[in-house]
Amino acid sequence: MYPRETLVTVAQEGARIRAVARSLSDVMSVLDRPTIESTPDGPSTESLRSDFFGIADDTTDDSSEDLRSFAKSIPDVARGVVIVACSDTAVHAARAAVALIPDPSVPIVVVDRLPRYVGAMDCVIVLTPDPADREAEEAVVRCRQVGAMVMVAAPTSGPVAEAGTGYGLVVPDIPGVTGDSWGRYIATVTGGCGLVGQLPIQGVLDYTADAVDREMEASGPERDESVNPARQLGLRMKDHRVVIAGDGATRHVASFAAMRLLHHGIVAATADTAELARFYSDLHRGTSMDTAIDSSGETGTGSGSASSDVDKSIFYDPFLDAPAVQPLAAVVVPGLGGYSVRGRNEEPDAGMSRAYPSEQELSRLERYFDVRPVTVVDLTASDLHSAVAYICVLAARCAAAAAYVVAQED
């Protein structure tokens, strides 16, 4: 029997990303300034308005005053981007999204409360699952007072949303859904950075939502272990102490995954991939077996079903002897090898890269783990499409896997 609430929540990630994309598309339809610079042979600025976020533009001339007010607050040249993250999931998602910007032209910071220096030329993004979050509400009110651009990813009813209505952009959510959403936070941060020119993100969010939906279809409870990537990962972490490692943006995915495991009562920790490799021998000495698996669910040295030597002893008494040590499962979340953002005026095929480790990185990791490239998205799209979709799909897979870790037999 599986925690139905967890699986249902993760299955809604794609729809929540699309809700953000639709709202951002509506904003683009009322902007007076060009959204993307035109090229001699490229599409016109007007045609790019409708597909900037991969969503058809059906906004009419009677767009709401709220959207027009927000559009006017977007600075032509932003001084900085401030992300106010009011939950652990929001922090990890914001930092993962920021890590996808290799060379931002303005400072981008992730904080838990709005700094005093924020002014009219700044872009502020507020992320919270609490409709009455005090810090989030104060941040939105302060932005209104100083004239700063503000985007809010919060429950659509409550003091936080009310503070942003009529001035900022309160991104919508699907009906009847509350709580943290990795995909919604990633979409909001990515969209906000796109509005102030830090990312060329036409079509990215819709592409990401499709990728997440495909992943959750493959990870549904009706699919058995042989064809279910989340079930494979979850069953191999079951009854183990878990260390999840990643690099760059995937390090924050690893932190999110460990947090989901802790939420279900599973002992878990995170580390940089290099740190895990450096200290793996020490971890091995501290346990009776070593089991290494990568994010595709393949086993490395050892066996995921093996038990410790003390468990095998017929004379072991749990009341008199020392507690048995759970075996270790090391999960490597592959990073984004060779990732780079394509320029706005470059050819479509320029800047293409793979959304998994380079051969050199794989060679280094294989000294300790059975690491193989994990293709979770269609890598024929532009590199940013793949990168954003990759971290959202990995997060969805890890969240679903946490449900399978604690699954009980019917």
Backbone shape: elongated
Largest sheet: 5 strands, parallel
In DSSP terms, counting alpha (H) and pi (I) runs of 4 or more, how many helices? 15
Average pLDDT metric: 76
Radius of gyration based on Cα positions: 22 Å
Give the helices and strands as they follow along the chain.
HHHHEHEEHEHEHHHEHEHEHEHH
Strand order of the largest sheet: 2-1-3-4-5
The separation of the N and C termini measures 5 Å
**Helix-and-strand structural type:** alpha/beta
In helices, the fraction of residues equals: 40-55%
Q: Return residue spans where pLDDT drops below 50 for at least 5 consecutive residues.
A: 32-63, 287-311, 340-357, 368-381
Structure characterization notes:
Helix 2 (13-30) packs parallel to helix 8 (182-195). It contains 15 helices and nine strands. It is an alpha/beta fold and 410 residues long. The protein has helices at 4-11, 13-30, 45-51, 65-73, 88-99, 134-146, 159-164, 182-195, 204-218, 229-237, 249-263, 273-285, 309-312, 359-365, 383-405, and strands spanning 80-85, 108-111, 122-127, 149-153, 169-170, 241-246, 268-272, 290-294, 328-332. The chain is 42% helix and 11% strand. Helix 7 links the parallel strand 4 and strand 5. It has a five-stranded parallel β-sheet with strand order 2-1-3-4-5, sandwiched between helices.
How are the elements arranged and paired?
Elements: H1 4-11, H2 13-30, H3 45-51, H4 65-73, E1 80-85, H5 88-99, E2 108-111, E3 122-127, H6 134-146, E4 149-153, H7 159-164, E5 169-170, H8 182-195, H9 204-218, H10 229-237, E6 241-246, H11 249-263, E7 268-272, H12 273-285, E8 290-294, H13 309-312, E9 328-332, H14 359-365, H15 383-405
Parallel strand pairs: 1-2, 1-3, 3-4, 4-5, 6-7, 6-9, 8-9
